[in-house]
Amino acid sequence: MTKYLILILSISWIFFIRCRNNERTITPTISNVVESVYASGIVKSEKQYEVFTKVNGVVGIIFAKEGALVKKGAPLFQIENVNLKLSEENARFYSLANDYKRNQEKVSEAKDFMELAQIRLVKDSLLYMRQQDLWQQNIGSKIDLEQKELSFESAKVNLKKSKVAYDDMIRQLKLASDQSKNSLKMAEAAGRDLIIRSEVDGYVYKINVQQGELATSMSSLAIVGKENFVIELLVDELDIVKIVKGQKVIVKMDSYQNQTFEALVNFVYPMMNERNRTFKVEAVFNNKPEVLYPNLSLEANIIINEKKNVLTVPTEYLLNDSSVVLEDGTVKELKIGLKDYSIAEIVSGADTNTKIRMPKNEK
How far is CA 300 from CA 38, 39, 229, 270, 283, in A? Predict the structure, then answer.
């Protein structure tokens, strides 16, 4: 029984010694610390946009092919819409019919009525004055005088009416002329919208429709953009305050495995996407890949801060983010500076000779 007890104690002691010897200890090292913000994103053509039609219709002509180089203003699609063409023709007819210069006969007619009313007023005025003179000489009847007075008053009213009618005629003709011309301009503008043109000098990267298909203002017809490419990143709202223009970006792409590319933050869009709680950040390549296409996926690290040749410790050896366990098991508080996902800067509290053990809760 004593032999078995001695054997068990011996095995336990050996196991304890081996466990002690297997506990990993390290010493702080001199290295570089880089603090960065992770972001996912895509490659986009500069000024890349989706082509939409302003008017519904059928795709009549597709002027460009995928991959074609186009100039700003070059036609991309022609949309067929019979009703819109008829509306433009009707607007043109109304514009001609209501043109002010073409309706001068109506103006002349109204002016003639006004001049005739003026002549009648002068004539009736003279007859009334003559009748008054005769009445003062006791010549003529009271009825004759009243009739001449009534004719004179009626002539004054008719002249006033003719002047009002003349002014109304001019105003209505000018209004109808201007309205019909504006309607024609609107119809012509809508007709011009049937030809969809490129907004930039660049390439047609994708065409989404075929000839004869229905085109609506809700469906994208094509994707067009410039030859140059930019990086569009999505940054979480918790990190966006750290991002400023000019920061370096390290880019990794699935299309170029085992390669990294440098870029610079060019613009931070101020509006947050409420759906995914991210901000859009635009960056431009410093050294871009030889071949790029729109919508290539990528991952990036935006460099926030960087320190070279500083004392560091792996973050997995930190206890509560600011302490370490020494070789003898005691816990020591450190002053931690810059930190990334793998290492942390030691500002004070340790040196290159300090032996540090892995905390038990990290095993």
Answer: 6, 5, 16, 20, 10
CA–CA separation, 74 and 225 (whole Å): 13
pLDDT of residue 2: 43
**CA–CA dist 65, 78 (Å, integer):** 14
Tell me how many degrees the CA angle 61-44-287 measures, rounded to the nearest 5.
Answer: 135
Fold of 22-33+308-362: 2.40.420
Query: What are the boundaries of each domain within the chain?
Result: 22-33+308-362, 82-193
* Per-residue model confidence (pLDDT) at position 232: 95
**For position 225, what pLDDT does the model report?**
93
* AA letter at 113: F
Residues contacting 115, CB < 8 A, separation 6+: none
User: 264 with 248: CB under 8 angstroms?
Assistant: yes
Q: How far is it, in rounded angstroms, from Cα 107 to Cα 180?
A: 18
* 281 Cα distance to chain centroid: 14
Count of positions (residues) in the chain: 363
CB of 94 within 8 A of CB of 183? yes
The residues of the chain scoring below 50 in pLDDT are: 1-22, 362-363
Run of H or E residues at 163? helix 142-192
Across the strands, what pairs with 323? Answer: 319, 333
Order of all β-strands in the sheet with 222-225: 49-51, 222-225, 202-207, 69-70
- The predicted pLDDT at position 341 comes to 66
Pair type for strands 297-314 and 343-348: antiparallel
Helix then strand count (H, E) for the chain reads 4, 20
Task: Give CA–CA dist 246/284, Å, rounded.
Answer: 10
Residues 44, 230: contact at Cβ < 8 Å? yes
The SS3 of residue 21 is: helix
Closest to 245 (Cα-Cα) out of 201, 282, 203: 282
Please give the structure tokens belonging to residue 2. 């004593």
**Rounded-to-integer distance, Cα 215 and Cα 209, Å:** 8
Are residues 146 and 159 in contact, defined by beta-carbon separation less than 8 angstroms?
A: no
Pairing of strands 229-236, 29-45: antiparallel
Structure tokens at 291: 């071949």
